[in-house]
Amino acid sequence: MAQILLVDDEKLARSLYGDFLAGAGHDVTAVGSAAEAREALAKQKFALLVTDLILPHSDGMELLAFAKSTQPDLEVLVITALDKVEPAVRAIKSGAADYLLKPVPPEVLAHAVNRAIAQHSLLKENEALRMHVALLEAGQRIVSTLERDKLYEATHTAFHSTLGVDALAIFTRGESNELELSATQGFGETPQGVVELQTLGRIRGHIDEIAVHGGQVEIDGLDFKRAYLVPVFDNDVRCGGVLAFFKSELPQTGLDAFPFLARHVGMALRNQGKFAAVEDLVYLDDHTHLFNNRYLKLVLEKDFKNVTPDSKPFALLFLDLDYFKSVNDTHGHLVGSRLLVEVAKVLKNCVRDNDVCCRWGGDEYVILLRATDSGGALKVAERIRRAIENHKFLSREGFTIKITTCIGVASFPEHATDATTLLDFADRAMYRGKKGTRNIIYLAAKNLEATPASRHQTSEK
């Protein structure tokens, strides 16, 4: 069933089409003018607008434009007695899903309505998928941030980018088990002491009674219209809270994402100073806490599906450590495992927050560089190569292990226009370095030798 707004100045047409659509199981609101339609659009969300092109004191094109500006995801079906091509072209260019001529047979109307609603549902599903992936990325950045100050910055960035939060106050329990204001982000020149004065007492009085999914609270004295408090849990214990401020109204959708991100804040707080076990997070490598190859494939599939003629380039770096087996043979597998974790930290320090850093498997890593062509990717690859070459691994544990890496670079659309080929080209470029001097970077090319399957079945690099 879908919410449908039917607009036609002819009472008979409204009754005929309205009864038919209602009989098909839809919830139909039928009105006779553009003014009534605008009023209905202001009060309610609809999946489909079915409108006549000729209306009293207005026309369907004006109503179509208004509807799209009010509800951008609304599908529009135009029905009219005008048997001309030009109005149909205008309607389609303005965002109409279809254009039907009166009288419309019931089966034709049913087909057009079903197709428009299916399109609306598909767009909603795609929007939800994009939101889900964005939340996964935001949550991963929060939970993998091990420095307290950077955690607060990552939390504000995540809440701002995914939920439109303008400012954030983070509260944690101190040694006395009382809530304390730990950090503020987004308040401009307002001192943290002023934020604390206006919020701390209020939060202490509400945190134990606020719902798990959060709730709106009244905060005076700060230049924001709305505030939303979400508790932060350490397992089942409330260990703090995130207070989000909005300059306008609360978002109509996405409030269920607040507790999702707050849970990641709780995990990050619990895991400060150590490497946390995150095996339950399906898209994370349980050893390095980077994304895993399953997640990389998901992101690449999504990115290639969303490619348009105006899409920016992006690039892959395929890394393989040189002679990593000798580290295991000399120092043992435990030291080798710790080195892999430290390599992951070096890689994350060399790329931006919105780049995707993955452990592909063994001592192989893959990095997706957003909005980066092959020239930019080569510069990043060189920065990584030098960083690994110059780094003294596990020095805190009493070692000074030196290691190098080979890096293959491939970019979209220069080298490939699908995920499988892009990965293969980056892998081939890396393998070209392994066969030569090592500690080198190679750019993808069509004539590079394919990597043998046996290479992935041995730890000898």
Chain-wise SSE layout:
Elements: E1 3-7, H1 11-23, E2 27-31, H2 34-43, E3 48-52, E4 54-55, E5 58-59, H3 60-70, E6 75-80, H4 85-93, E7 98-101, H5 106-143, H6 148-163, E8 167-173, E9 179-185, H7 192-206, E10 215-217, E11 226-234, E12 237-246, H8 257-270, E13 291-292, H9 293-305, E14 314-321, H10 324-331, H11 333-350, E15 356-361, E16 364-369, H12 374-390, E17 405-412, H13 419-434, E18 441-443
Parallel strand pairs: 1-2, 1-3, 3-6, 6-7, 13-15, 17-18
Antiparallel strand pairs: 4-5, 8-9, 8-12, 10-11, 11-12, 14-16, 14-17, 15-16
Helix pairs in contact: 2-3, 5-6, 5-8, 6-8, 10-11, 11-12
How would you characterize this protein structure?
- Strands 13-15-16-14-17-18 form a 6-stranded mixed beta sheet.
- A hairpin with a 5-residue loop joins β8 (167-173) and β9.
- It is an alpha/beta fold and 461 residues long.
- It folds into 3 domains: 3-125, Rossmann fold; 146-270, GAF domain (Beta-Lactamase); 291-457, Alpha-Beta Plaits, CATH 3.30.70.270.
- Helices cover 43% and strands 21% of the residues.
- The protein is flat.
- It has helices at 11-23, 34-43, 60-70, 85-93, 106-143, 148-163, 192-206, 257-270, 293-305, 324-331, 333-350, 374-390, 419-434; strands at 3-7, 27-31, 48-52, 54-55, 58-59, 75-80, 98-101, 167-173, 179-185, 215-217, 226-234, 237-246, 291-292, 314-321, 356-361, 364-369, 405-412, 441-443.
